[in-house]
């Protein structure tokens, strides 16, 4: 069994999805989905331990050795990402049953869980595989299920947001397909490890440049890197709360993983950053993303929209870390991936609780909520502190390492700009705190109760994780450093 | 061009032309799939959509300068990229030298199936194909989640009226199709099982099977078709197809090998490969046929509903 | 060089036509048609990579020694299926949008949304 862990990581949710159709009642289906997600989480922990102990795990699917067959190649980076995705998925599912009762019509509940499992399986498939075309197939599984999940939102704007995401996402996927095809043409293989060995010979041809360009643009469309982020705010704002919590914490991280994997492992650090001015380009785009998105967030009246723009800004931070192509910079980015998943998962889940009780997430409906829903608002406050980067929270740790990496590299202006971005975060989160605690409730609106336990438990699990990992940083830092080092060719 | 019906038909013709182009380029399996899926199903779904959404496009008011600029830059980049490519048809391009020779030379001994594309699709890269089946399944579930309408039983009188009028107006079509449909179904089965030896396989067979059912429902009315083909059963079938595929892989694992290693399905590895490919293609055909039927029925059902009830909210 | 590469250039032109339709037109159904054309052109591109002069279809038979490369065929089969899945979902969304907004023109939909905010 242990030897089969890599494939089980993906197969368990993948085959559980159609099985949900066989189980009829939504109550059972929820329990089943929760169990499946939980087992996927346990598998990812086991995988991480195995990789840290004994090095890269290789698994040949179908018994055919690569590059004639498809292989799974698990190193520290893959294991870290599986951990993030399955962890968030399991915690978010705890609140799912209550949440979708309000937001999705009864007869769609089973289908919701099927799509959720498919999305989970798709993302896990992307992060575990070592074959470029397999990435494309699983990318489409996760994207298609995401489009359908977003469209299940109550507001009719969810449909429009999903359609826009579909168009932009499909263009991105087609670009990635073009890139893979061009790479195949020049090297004759689809396996990532094999590609990394064969590409240096043909690296200076125009075809490989074009392949690289198309791949990067395609991935950036999925990543929501400024200015290709247009689909994200609407998609996150109008989707059902559980969907937003899950996707915000995982889907863009997976795209960032693809970017890192292709530039570091397949094309090689020297090619990726020296032949094209990628470093400068990404730093500029990342910082622009931080400032433009944070500023737009300040003017938003819908709190979900506000946090969605904030996500675009956080992705900008991750790209800045990535563009400082040193071990320290990459480590900061990976750490921020982990931390951001915790932060946004907690925030969007708490927002889901507010939506459940109040029926809307408009800023004016937050007046006086501090007294009516104390635990939920406290969770939002802690999450916001983490977003800004206050010490003792997880957000502080990743910002600290990011600034450190920039300073080590001699990029003083960048470090200053990162800190300025945090100031903007204070502004937009203050608006929520002010509305909830310092404004009286609107006249004529009835009082609401605190959110039900099924929401409070997962929200506070994530919030406590925020604080715990902010104080005891060993796990996050250790794994992120190991992963960064392995990408630079040192260690597993 | 403002007439969307014409646009859709032209795109169908484009699909058919590309299918024939594939044939001239020796890609017969691909041509088969493109003709049935790209030119057939896609055009059909687009026509149903246009029926509901309106035949004519409204005039746009903005000038697409930016779009033109982006397209020109992308196109220029692509052409720039082609300048270093190996020439069209050259046999010593790197793409042909590394991985492909083993498929061509060794697949007969290792798998024993003459159609190399089926061998690669179902065995060497079988996991990709599992992903592909799941993609189709996802689309089916997505369409179900978006478009399914609850059915009310009081419509049977209406149904019978429609059937009678259809019969009268299109007598020749009804009679001829009743004769053809069994042959179409048998052809689908033939394509399914002959996929090892000639172009064909699970996908194409599934689509042809679904086409027969869609033809029936187009001529005899959605409601009659719904009575013949039980909806929950079809949904169950789509799930079972994926599970058949997955179980083949799980059985391999239980027998001691890796996931989807067919060598372990029987005493003789080559027989194991044959068995594995047969089962896997069956799963594919099952899911593809059911999902195509689900998609068509939901598209048609929603259009029917919209035509009868009008816009839900404005 | 021109003779060896003109196939690719034609395909690039086809791809760009499809791409242009997707981003320039406002009608939702037309966008999907454009996406389909874009994707089909990419498939033609891939298949043309796999062609070998003097080769035949990759089905083993007596007396034939040169076969076209089967690997891109497999990839494109998968990609065609992915394409139809996307088209089906996109069209389903277009139908729902028509029901909810009463129109499938991008401009009109955005006008109605802006009026609500």
What percentage of the residues of chain B does DSSP assign to strands (E)?
under 5%
| Strand order across the largest sheet of chain A | 1-2
Helix content of chain B: over 70%
Low-confidence stretches of chain A: none
Task: Report how far apart the termini of chain A are.
Answer: 22 Å
The average pLDDT of chain A is 85
Quote the average pLDDT of chain B: 82
Q: What is the N-to-C succession of helices and strands of chain B?
A: HHHHHHHHHHHHH
What structural class do the secondary elements of chain B suggest?
mainly alpha
Question: Into how many domains do the coordinates of chain B divide?
Answer: 2
Q: What's the gyration radius of chain A in Å?
A: 21 Å
- What would you report as the Rg of chain B, rounded to the nearest angstrom? 23 Å
Q: Structural class, judged by helices and strands of chain A?
A: mainly alpha
Low confidence ranges of chain B: none
Kindly estimate the percentage of residues of chain A that lie in beta strands according to DSSP.
under 5%
Number of E strands of chain B:
0
Number of strands of chain A: 2
Percentage of residues in helical conformation of chain A: over 70%
Q: First CA to last CA of chain B: what distance?
A: 28 Å
What is the general shape of chain B? globular
In this structure, how is the largest beta sheet of chain B organized?
Answer: none
Offer a quick outline of the entry.
Chain A has 492 residues and is mainly α. Chain A contains 21 helices and two strands.
Report on this structure:
The complex is a heterotrimer of chains A (492), B (314) and C (117). Chain A has 492 residues and is mainly α. Chain A has a domain at 277-492. Chain A contains 21 helices and 2 strands. Chain A has helices at 5-22, 26-54, 76-94, 96-103, 109-128, 132-151, 157-187, 192-202, 206-223, 232-238, 241-266, 269-275, 278-298, 303-323, 327-358, 369-372, 374-388, 394-408, 412-438, 453-471, 474-487, and strands at 57-60, 71-74. A two-stranded antiparallel sheet of chain A has the order 1-2. In chain A, α7 (157-187) packs antiparallel against α9. Chain B is mainly α and 314 residues long. Chain B has 13 helices and no strands. Chain B has helices spanning 4-24, 28-53, 65-82, 94-97, 100-110, 116-124, 126-147, 156-169, 171-194, 202-220, 222-228, 231-254, 269-309. In chain B, α10 (202-220) runs parallel beside α13. The radius of gyration of chain B is 23 Å and the shape is globular. Chain B starts with a helix and ends in a 5-residue tail after the last helix. Chain C is mostly helical. In chain C, α1 (2-24) packs antiparallel against α2 (28-50). The model of chain C has no long low-confidence stretch (mean pLDDT 82). Chains B and C meet through α1, α2, α3, α5 and α6 of B and α1, α2 and α3 of C.
């Amino acid at each position: 069994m242990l030897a089969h862990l890599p494939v089980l990581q993906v197969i368990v949710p993948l085959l559980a999805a159609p099985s949900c159709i066989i189980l009829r009642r939504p109550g059972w289906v929820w329990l089943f989905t929760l169990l499946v997600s939980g087992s996927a989480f346990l598998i990812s922990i086991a995988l991480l331990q195995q990789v840290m102990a004994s090095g890269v795990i290789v698994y040949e699917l179908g018994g055919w050795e690569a590059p004639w067959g498809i292989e799974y190649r698990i190193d520290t980076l893959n294991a870290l990402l599986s951990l993030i995705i399955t962890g968030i998925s399991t915690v978010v599912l705890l609140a799912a049953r209550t949440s979708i009762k309000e937001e999705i019509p009864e007869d769609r509940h089973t289908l919701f869980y099927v799509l959720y499992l498919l999305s989970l399986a798709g993302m896990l498939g992307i992060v575990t595989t070592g074959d470029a075309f397999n990435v494309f197939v699983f990318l489409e599984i996760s994207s298609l299920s995401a489009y359908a999940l977003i469209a299940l939102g109550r507001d009719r704007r969810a449909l429009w947001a999903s359609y826009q995401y579909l168009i932009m996402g499909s263009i991105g996927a087609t670009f990635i397909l073009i890139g893979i095809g061009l790479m195949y043409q020049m090297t004759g293989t689809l396996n990532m490890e094999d590609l990394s060995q064969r590409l240096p010979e043909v690296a200076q041809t125009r075809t490989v440049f074009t392949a690289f360009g198309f791949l990067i643009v395609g991935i950036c469309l999925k990543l929501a890197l400024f200015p290709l982020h247009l689909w994200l705010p609407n998609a996150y704002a109008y989707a059902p709360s559980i969907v937003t919590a899950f996707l915000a914490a995982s889907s863009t991280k997976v795209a960032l993983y693809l970017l890192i994997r292709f530039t570091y492992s397949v094309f090689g650090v020297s090619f990726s950053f020296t032949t094209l001015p990628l470093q400068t380009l990404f730093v500029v785009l990342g910082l622009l993303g931080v400032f433009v998105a944070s500023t737009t967030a300040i003017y938003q009246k819908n709190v979900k929209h506000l946090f969605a723009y904030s996500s675009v800004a956080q992705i900008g931070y991750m790209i800045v870390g990535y563009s400082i192509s040193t071990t320290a910079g990459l480590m900061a980015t990976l750490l921020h991936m982990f931390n951001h998943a915790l932060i946004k998962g907690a925030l969007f889940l708490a927002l889901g609780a507010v939506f459940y009780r109040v029926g809307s997430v408009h800023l004016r409906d937050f007046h006086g909520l501090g007294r009516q829903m104390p635990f939920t608002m406290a969770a939002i406050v802690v999450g916001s502190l983490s977003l800004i980067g206050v010490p003792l929270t997880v957000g502080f740790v990743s910002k600290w390492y990011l600034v450190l990496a920039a300073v080590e590299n001699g990029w003083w202006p960048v470090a200053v700009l990162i800190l300025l971005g945090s100031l903007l975060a204070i502004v937009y989160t203050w608006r929520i705190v002010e509305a909830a605690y310092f404004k009286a409730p609107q006249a004529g609106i009835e009082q609401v109760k605190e959110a039900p336990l099924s929401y409070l438990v997962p929200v506070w699990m994530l919030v406590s994780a925020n604080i715990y990992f902010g104080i005891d940083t060993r796990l996050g830092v250790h794994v992120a450093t190991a992963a960064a080092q392995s990408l630079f060719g040192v260690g597993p | 061009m403002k007439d969307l019906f014409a646009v859709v038909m032209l795109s169908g013709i484009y699909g058919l032309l590309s299918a024939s182009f594939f044939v001239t380029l020796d890609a017969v399996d691909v041509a088969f799939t493109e003709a049935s899926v790209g030119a057939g199903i896609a055009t059909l779904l687009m026509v149903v959509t246009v029926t509901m959404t309106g035949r004519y496009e409204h005039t746009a008011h903005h000038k697409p300068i930016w779009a033109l600029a982006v397209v020109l830059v992308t196109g220029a980049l692509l052409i720039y990229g082609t300048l270093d490519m190996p020439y069209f048809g050259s046999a010593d391009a790197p793409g042909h030298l590394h991985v492909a020779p083993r498929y061509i030379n060794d697949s007969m001994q290792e798998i024993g199936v003459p159609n190399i594309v089926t061998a690669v699709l179902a065995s060497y890269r079988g996991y990709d194909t599992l992903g592909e089946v799941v993609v189709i399944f996802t689309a089916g579930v997505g369409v179900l989640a978006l478009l399914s309408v609850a059915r009310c039983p009081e419509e049977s009188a209406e149904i019978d009226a429609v059937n009678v009028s259809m019969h009268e107006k299109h007598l020749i079509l009804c009679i001829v199709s009743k004769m053809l449909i069994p042959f179409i179904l048998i052809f689908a089965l033939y394509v399914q099982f002959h996929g090892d030896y000639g172009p064909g396989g699970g996908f194409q067979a599934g689509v042809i099977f679904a086409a027969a059912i869609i033809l029936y429902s187009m001529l005899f009315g959605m409601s009659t078709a719904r009575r013949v083909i039980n909806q929950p059963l079809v949904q169950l079938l789509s799930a079972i197809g994926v599970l058949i595929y997955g179980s083949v892989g799980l059985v391999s694992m239980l027998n001691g090998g890796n996931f989807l290693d067919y060598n372990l399905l029987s005493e003789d590895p080559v027989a194991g490969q044959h068995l594995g490919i047969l089962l896997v293609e069956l799963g594919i055909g099952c899911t593809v046929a059911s999902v195509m039927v689900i998609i068509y029925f939901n598209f048609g059902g929603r259009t029917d509903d919209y035509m009868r009830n009008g816009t839900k909210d404005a | 060089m021109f003779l060896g590469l003109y196939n690719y250039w034609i395909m690039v032109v086809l791809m760009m036509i499809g791409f242009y339709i997707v981003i320039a037109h406002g009608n939702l159904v037309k966008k999907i048609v454009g996406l389909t054309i874009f994707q089909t052109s990419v498939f033609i591109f891939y298949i043309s990579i796999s062609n070998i002069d003097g080769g035949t279809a990759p089905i083993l038979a007596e007396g034939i020694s040169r076969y076209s490369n089967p690997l891109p065929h497999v990839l494109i089969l998968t990609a065609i299926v992915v394409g139809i899945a996307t088209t089906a979902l996109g069209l389903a969304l277009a139908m729902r949008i028509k029901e909810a907004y009463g129109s499938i023109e991008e401009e009109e939909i955005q006008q109605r949304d802006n009026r609500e905010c």
